[in-house]
Amino acid sequence: MNDVGVEVALKIDYAGFSLDVDLKLSGRGVTVLFGQSGSGKTTLLRCIAGLERADGRVIVRGEAWQDGRYFVAPHKRPLGYVFQEAGLFAHLSVRGNLMYGVKRLKQAVNDAQIERSIELLGIGHLMNRRPARLSGGERQRVAIAQALAMNPRILLMDEPLAALDEARKREILPYLQRLHDELDIPVLYITHASQEMASLADHVVVLEQGRVVSSGPVNAVLSRLDLALNMGEDAGVIINASIAERDELFHLARADFAGGSLWARDMGKPCGTSVRLWVSARDVSIALKPPADSSILNVLPASVAGVTEGDHPAIRLVKLEVGESVLLSRISARSMQSLGLDINKTVWIQVKSAALVE
Amino acid sequence: MFSDANLTAILLTLRLAALVTVLLLLIGTPLAWWLSRTRSWLRGPVSALVALPIVLPPSVIGFYMLLAMGPNGPIGVFTEALGIGTLPFTFGGLVIASVVYSLPFVVQPIQNAFEAIGERPLEMAAMLRAGPWDRFFSVALPLALPGFLTGGILGFAHTLGEFGVVLMIGGNIPGVTRVISVQIYDHVEALDYADAHALSLLMLAFSFVILWLLYSFRPAQTRRRA
């Protein structure tokens, strides 16, 4: 791989927790570290930042930050870090917070970089406020801008949206998507929310009890049944598609993908735009005949490619092939039996909702 | 309003309290920082030592300080080797004893303030390229400022009011060790109630105002931090 950006081989043994990873991550795009709490995501990120010390090696874009006994102090690593709850400095204004890091850089940062961070996160009007007078979402945006203004070589984000309510998440997500589109540095992003992963990830690393279970491009990782299992209610897939038709009257857009097309809520993207569709497994139901007179717009022929027991004995996760694309469906074990679903059986699937996430 | 002797005592007391407060902030800050961050087993015993003056009678502290500073005590041997002579019954001796006596009143508020900051702001500062000293001065100190104000005020006020330690260490030398509290004692012994009143009222009013300031200042701080 030519674009290896981050090489991490780390080992920790605490009582009751161990981390043992050996990863090569892309130097471009967003890599989501995915896993349940206690899986070691945050510890891994903190080790890369130097906030915690494990045995092993951390090499970021060709520069060793840790190798054997060699260890670069955390404040000497050219990275940006966004913590889960934005702990801005209470004694400084937003501007003071933003400039805190910039002032400490060895090489001068050009004002354009700072202006761009302010503009990217839309915090220009907040510069003179104190952190106590910001909303949670605004605070998190300042924290992200603070990290970006330093012109870091890598951006580490530890569940930046987890402490926010749904409305605040929706407020910030577009800013994160802009980062994703415009930044040319690698981003390591921790989350356990599949929606966030769906809209941001290029690559996914799935961690479980301190071990890497899977690592690769987002589509490939998400459609694996064994991994989807861990996601429980959040299981779903991402499908790359492009907008083919827009229904102005009903505010819908048709997204074509390899093997079919789906209608989703129109997000104002013009025809021809590449988009991502997030299809949650619980929004996909299965029928043996094409259903008539249903409220569901999206009905597609598919074939069963795999079945696994779900996170509860009553649940089955079914992997379905639609042309070259893969969908997951979360159905009850009873339906499974009454429909007589087997590998290669041809079925009709109804997709209750698909979300355009990009 | 005040006799020359009273004025001398007032000025001496203020000089003592101011000097002791400055010294306490200098000594107390690193000590409080260490206590708030260390995981060493020494944390327990050191905390206990610092807190001792809160529970011990001043005469006990004064007694041991007297022995320590005397010609056979560790401090006395040291100061004699330096050619300063021994410290009991000097202003310097009074300063040292007062520093010990008021230490917990300065260290504890600062330590609490440091502990309240937590690790996160310091980690954030590290992620923004601040080295350890830089983090301390640019983040820990400003965030702990209310603790410093409380500690400084309490240390100053507590030193103003000391009596037992002064008697044991300093005796009663005008202009050198005769502070307000001792002067009041002398006035009462001599049945000079008018002078005793003047000084006592001064102490009472001053202490009240200081504590008033302290307590009206505190809730405002917590409100601002929340």
What share of residues are in beta strands of chain A? 35-45%
CATH superfamily of the largest domain in chain A: P-loop containing nucleotide triphosphate hydrolases
Query: How are the strands ordered across the major sheet of chain A?
Result: 7-8-9-3-10-11
In DSSP terms (H or I, runs of 4 or more residues), the helix count of chain A works out at 9
Average of the residue pLDDT scores of chain B: 90
Q: What is the first-to-last residue Cα distance of chain A?
A: 27 Å
Quaternary status = heterodimer
Structural category of chain B is mainly alpha
CATH class of the largest domain in chain A: Alpha Beta
Count the beta strands of chain B.
Answer: 0
- What's the helical proportion of residues of chain B? over 70%
Give the structural class of chain A.
alpha+beta
Radius of gyration of chain B: 20 Å
Series of H and E elements of chain B: HHHHHHHHHHH
Largest interface: A-B, 24 and 22 residues
By DSSP, the count of extended strands of chain A is 21
The overall average pLDDT of chain A, rounded, is 87
Describe this structure in words.
Helix content of chain A is 24%, strand content 38%. By secondary structure, chain A is α+β, with helices and mostly antiparallel strands. Chain A has a 6-stranded mixed β-sheet, sandwiched between helices. Chain A contains 9 helices and 21 strands. With 226 residues, chain B is mainly α. Chain B has helices at 4-37, 43-55, 58-69, 74-81, 91-117, 120-127, 132-143, 145-160, 164-169, 180-189, 193-225. The longest helix of chain B has 34 residues, at 4-37. The radius of gyration of chain B is 20 Å and the shape is globular. Chains A and B meet through strand 7 of A and helix 6 and helix 7 of B.
